[in-house]
Amino acid sequence: MSDIDPKTATELEAAAFRRLVAHLRERTDVQNIDLMNLAGFCRNCLSNWYQDAAAERGIELAKDEVRALIYGMPYKEWQQRYQTEASPEAKAKFAQSSTGGHK
Question: Within its chain, how far is the Cα of 97 from the centroid?
């Protein structure tokens, strides 16, 4: 791997994060429970991580504010527009996983 200075590395990481968030905004068909069951994280995890990173820097962000940054709209609106009822199988898999009850 080529030598990448820390500033450029941060810029690349930020660009990759923005692309991930944009991708998840486009893929409204992918439910959070499916992400959790397959990857161990979801949109809410991303918003929590963002909020944690802000708090580490002394920046207080409300949960609703951060979720809107990730979802591209208020969370309640996203739920009403795109969230579907999880299948019994998905719920059972989530309950059995180590990520069930994630932060």
Answer: 18
> How many structural domains comprise the chain?
1
- Residue 91 inside a domain? The answer is no
Helix, coil or strand: residue 16: helix
- The CATH number of residue 56's host domain is 1.10.3340.10
**Tens-place pLDDT, residues 52-89:** 999 999 999 999 999 999 999 999 999 999 999 999 99
Q: Number of C-alpha atoms within 13 angstroms, CB side, residue 31?
A: 15
> Is the pTM value of this prediction over 0.85?
yes
Domain that holds residue 67: 31-84
